[in-house]
Amino acid sequence: MSETSDEYWMRHALQLARRAREQGEVPVGAVLVQGDKVIGEGWNRPIGQHDPTAHAEMMALREGGKALENYRLLDTTLYVTLEPCIMCAGAIVHSRIGRLVFGARDEKTGAAGSLVDILGHPGMNHQVKVEQGVLAEECAAMLSDFFRMRREQKRAQRQAQRAAEQGATPGSAA
């Protein structure tokens, strides 16, 4: 696939990441493509679905399996805005994804080379071609903005709580 095509699909994944952000989730999006057709897509939903496995990649893989009626997702490319974690990297290997393209690296939990390299481990029974850095700045900025906003919200909540506590006088009815 060409760089232009990779950017096109990564922009699609960024749109999905925006959906996650709108739902109060960490903004990560994923789109699974076979040829020039979307067969699965997802965005982070672990909070809303009360499901620790509801990462964007997992949601896209689940849809892809249903679309192909197979757990093997051969000849597909998965586009993700953030480097997959260990759980998602394992699922990518087991599903036989041919190619992974991701935007931003994740130094804390990335399993495609940042923290560990599950996808490139020589002992794996399937090797995934990995390309990184597609629209990396845009992908990273969305995540940075989200976490900055979340920190500001928590700071404002703490300040409001302190103010409420200072406003309460000893012995007053609560």
Automatic annotation (TrEMBL):
It catalyses: adenosine(34) in tRNA + H2O + H(+) = inosine(34) in tRNA + NH4(+). The active site is at E57. Zn(2+) binds at H55, C85, C88. Residues 158-168 have a biased composition (Low complexity). Its cofactor is Zn(2+). GO terms for molecular function: tRNA-specific adenosine-34 deaminase activity; zinc ion binding. Its EC number is 3.5.4.33. InterPro entries: APOBEC/CMP_deaminase_Zn-bd, CMP_dCMP_dom, Cytidine_deaminase-like, tRNA_aden_deaminase. Binds 1 zinc ion per subunit. Catalyzes the deamination of adenosine to inosine at the wobble position 34 of tRNA(Arg2). NCBIfam families: PRK10860.1. This is tRNA-specific adenosine deaminase.
